[in-house]
Prior knowledge:
The protein is about 70% helix and about 10% strand. It has helices spanning about 1-25, 45-70, 75-80, 95-100, 100-120, 125-145; strands at about 30, 40, 150. Heme C binds near residues 106, 107 and 150.
Amino acid sequence: MKSNKLALIALLVWLATVAVFAWFFIRGNTVAGNDGRTAVVLQAGERDLILSEMRGMLAATQGILDGVNNGDMQHISQAARAAGMAVTVDASPALMAKLPLGLKRLGMSVHRDMDDIATAAEKGRPPAEILKMTSGVLTKCVACHATWQLRLANQGSQ
Length: 158
Ligand code: HEC
């Protein structure tokens, strides 16, 4: 009887641990932002990494549009590929754990879209199709920016 109780307690503790991990996995390290968005709390180095990745995304978008305007498929493909899945390898597991699941999903899908645009350009797809894909990516940029912001952790030593 007693060992049954212990087993039940062990099971409950285990379930609680799993629930806490799941909660953090989905929510990431977030607090309510000051402008209605959700703020992801990061160390300075982590924030810098994401912001530099963002500036890369903006540069890629500009490069794609530039390439479309000049009919330069190679330029489109190079610009888009530079913001493809390959750039995500820089993120450490600690940073990944702090990012909410929805943000990670959206971020990954944008990198995948960039690779798709690069491939479409390499295959010589029509400019209208490339513009449509780019417009779809920009919708995701806007959606993510409307939902999340980045905030520095005060107690950080990084
Ligand atoms: C998955 C979420 C997400 C996606 C997708 C996303 N961003 Fe961002 N981006 C952010 C967050 C969060 C910030 C920080 C905003 C803040 O703190 O107010 C940011 C900041 C930026 C900045 C500011 C960089 C700086 O140095 O301050 C630029 C530029 C930017 N994003 C461009 C883009 C472009 C272009 C795209 C699409 C091709 C894009 N982002 C897609 C989340 C995202």
